[in-house]
Amino acid sequence: MILAQLPRLHLSIFAKSHFSLASSHFNLINPNPPVKLAKTLFSSLATVEPVPLPVSDSSHLEDAPMEIPLDKLFIPPETDISGDDPSRLAARILKGSNIVLSKYARDAQVVQADYVKSSVRTEDCPADGLPEFALVGRSNVGKSSLLNSLVKRKRLALTSKKPGKTQCINHFRINDNWYLVDLPGYGYASAPHELKKDWNKFTKDYFLNRSTLVSVFLLVDASLPAKQIDLDYASWLGQNQVPMTMVFTKCDKRKKKKNGGKRPEENIKEFQDLIQGFFETTPPWIMTSSVTNQGRDEILLHMAQLRNYWLKH
Ligand code: GDP
């Protein structure tokens, strides 16, 4: 069952509500907002009392909450939000994400993590039928740091960086009942064309043919403007209906750069705007930082709800 493709439930009941998210907290901007359904993910970087600000000086908006319209929430299957008033619904959304929690969100803790094997072909991957989540992203996006942070082990992901393993499908067994899978980073400028083509081929084969793959977690660096290669990757996953969660990394890098660099929230909004045409329904997304551990527990809870649903169906 492809979770990301399932229809949203009962959205019309809340069609006029917006929920406001900040990286560390939720704010309900207005329980009875004016009749206006924003088309984009974050309708604005709203403050409770909006003050017009010069574009060049928005640094004091660092912790300003963001709004998410209801039709941009990820509502897992078998999840009914029609009985929730706005504050109750806001409490059910994972911090710094668009993900609503379902009854399947349990058993999220990682107590054990072991490297199992590195495979070069999908058919060589573990055959025990356990559910798995694949981490993928541009090289340097923070994939190893995130993997280490998820399993609370400083050096586990180094295994994937050992010579001969960087281009492999690396399986890590968690709690003896599911896998985290580290896929090769893409976008190495210096990699020979033929090698790039080959990586593409085998990761695409893995995405399309790995029957125990519950969801791909596509890592995108939130401290940089959207990159074409990440947009292409998201587009390919969307077109091929591969379930995907977007993980925005390095969300602690909040300082506006002198050269006009944008804050993570602005880059995330831009990325969402650019990919919205690739998907029938908004995929789940979440903000993270391996420096502050922002999003760590939330990712694990999201993985748990996807996994428990997958196991039951
Ligand atoms: P990988 O190549 O995708 O595995 O990326 P790494 O995990 O090796 O990280 C690449 C660089 O980004 C390293 O210098 C990390 O210290 C840094 N980095 C990774 N995650 C974060 C993060 O959440 N915040 C910040 N500020 N830096 C990070």
Q: How does the SSE layout of this entry go?
A:
Blueprint: E1 18-21, E2 26-27, E3 66-69, H1 86-91, E4 113-119, E5 132-137, H2 143-151, H3 158-161, E6 169-174, E7 178-182, H4 193-209, E8 213-221, H5 228-239, E9 244-249, H6 264-275, E10 285-287, H7 296-312
The protein binds guanosine-5'-diphosphate.
Guanosine-5'-diphosphate binds next to helix 2.
Overview of this structure, please?
The protein is 25% helix and 17% strand. It is α/β, with parallel strands linked by helices and 313 residues long. It has a domain at 107-312: P-loop containing nucleotide triphosphate hydrolases (Rossmann fold), CATH 3.40.50.300. It is globular, with a radius of gyration of 19 Å. The structure holds guanosine-5'-diphosphate. Guanosine-5'-diphosphate is lined by residues 137, 139-145, 185, 249-250, 252-253, 289-291. Belongs to the TRAFAC class TrmE-Era-EngA-EngB-Septin-like GTPase superfamily. EngB GTPase family. Residues 129-309 form the EngB-type G domain.
What oligomeric assembly is this protein in? single chain
Cα-atom Rg, whole angstroms? 19 Å
CATH top level class name of the domain at 107-312: Alpha Beta
Low-pLDDT ranges: 1-62
Based on the coordinates given, report the CATH architecture of the domain at 107-312.
3-Layer(aba) Sandwich
Number of strands: 10
Tell me what portion of residues adopts beta-strand conformation.
15-25%
CATH topology of the domain at 107-312: Rossmann fold
Biggest beta-sheet profile: 7 strands, mixed
Give the helix proportion (percent range). 10-25%
The distinct ligands, each listed once, are:
guanosine-5'-diphosphate
Rounded average pLDDT: 79
Class from secondary-structure proportions: alpha/beta
Strand order of the largest sheet: 4-6-7-5-8-9-10
* Overall geometry: globular
Element string (H = helix, E = strand) = EEEHEEHHEEHEHEHEH
Instruction: Report the span from N to C terminus.
Output: 8 Å
The tally of helices reads: 7
CATH superfamily of the domain at 107-312: P-loop containing nucleotide triphosphate hydrolases
Domain EngB-type G: 129-309
Keywords: Cell cycle, Cell division, GTP-binding, Magnesium, Metal-binding, Nucleotide-binding, Septation
Protein name: EngB-type G domain-containing protein
Cofactor: Mg(2+)
